[in-house]
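ZP: hey, is the phenylalanine complex queued? I don't see it on the tracker
AM: it wasn't, my bad. submitting now with these inputs:
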Amino acid sequence: MSKRHGKHGSKQEWSSGIGFIIACVGSAVGLGNLWKFPYITYENGGGAFVFIYLLAILVVGFPIILGEMIIGRHGHANIFGTFKSLSKDHPFWKGLGIFLISVGALILSFYSVVAGWTLEYFIKSLSGELGGLTVATVGKHFGSFVGNGWKQVFYHTLFMGFTAFIILKGTRRIEQAVKILMPVLFVLIFVIMGISLYNFGAGQSLSFLFDFDFSKLTSHSVLEAVGHAFFTLSLGMGIMIIYGSYLPKKIHVVRAGLWIVFFDTFIALMACMMMYPIIFGTNMEVKESAAMLFTTLTVQFNALPGGGFISAGFYMLVAFAALSSTISLLEPVVSYISEEWRMSRKKATALGAGVIWLLGVGCALSNGASEFFTKLGVMDKLDYFTSNWGLTVGGILISIFAGWILTKQATSSELEYEQSSLSYRGWLFCVRYLSPLFVLIVILYKLNLF
Ligand code: PHE
């Protein structure tokens, strides 16, 4: 994406189709795949949870990702402006625009805290401080790190600073960086996964992931699986609307969507296969399962020659993956403020990032550093409500908008399908009925309404 022109920004476009796909993959692949998916899958008992997650990706994630992209390309503005113009100023849809932007801001506030952890682990890998940790001590080490208020706020601030800087400088640089770093991350994950499997075998991990034992499912885990499908694809808060709004007409939306879904799902599953063998093979206690990314691998790296460097390289790449997600979380806020409140991009960035930073401080202190915030459980609650409720409700409404409010003429021409074709009718059926219904059933199930 190039920098916006003019004071309040006329529209910009992606440099190419590949550039767009890379930016979307950059947004989708992040802490959701490497940090969150392995630990919530572990917490929710594996197989059946994975099944619901994959089903949600297929019947909800894919159709809605296309829906968001075409709403964006059609509206060609910030999220609020898009709903405003496409709904002819309808207050409900304008309200949805504000809702989506707020959910993104809330997600960014805790996401940036976790992203900050990767910076500490990068530095400590280089200084050798992680070197002596064992299966028995990694957990405690992590606990005392997240309980250190100053460090938590410092790294959160650093990460928000990087994010704001890139948003200000124009994201073309990130597009270029992601183009190189994503493949490197991919290769490194592959290698680390290979080492884990070589050392500990795949058997137990595979059966944990793919034995579909439905008796383990609770209404909580079903909602969490569906919520995570949205989270990991960056759906339900309009990111693909804003990225789609920079999309030139000549790019095929369906192909782009397929790539994004494929990469994202593949990396999430690989992340599990990188960490689970260590847990099962060493009988590691994962009480602090949210810490999985920062405990299992440390032990693994320590057993390797030159482990400190591999570890540093790994956490740096994770930090990059997180950065390409955080910029996609901040962009909707900034483009809204600058376009709708007629502020310069600089001021809009300072205002948006400042408010989100402040919220994040509450999250940063809620993992043991401050008794007050820890008791409130600010970070966990924000994660729970935004991912599971905010994104799913946002997603249903976006789906309805794409299916019912946009005309068939508009959607079929954006998708480049004939209205009578099977692909078009399949997509329309999903966004009109199947996807909203699927999510609605999950929500009603969670609310114990049947
Ligand atoms: N999809 C990102 C991830 O998996 C997180 C994210 C969520 C980014 C919502 C943008 C919007 O890490």
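AM: back. Confidence is low (pLDDT under 50) at residues 1-11.
ZP: great, adding it to the tracker
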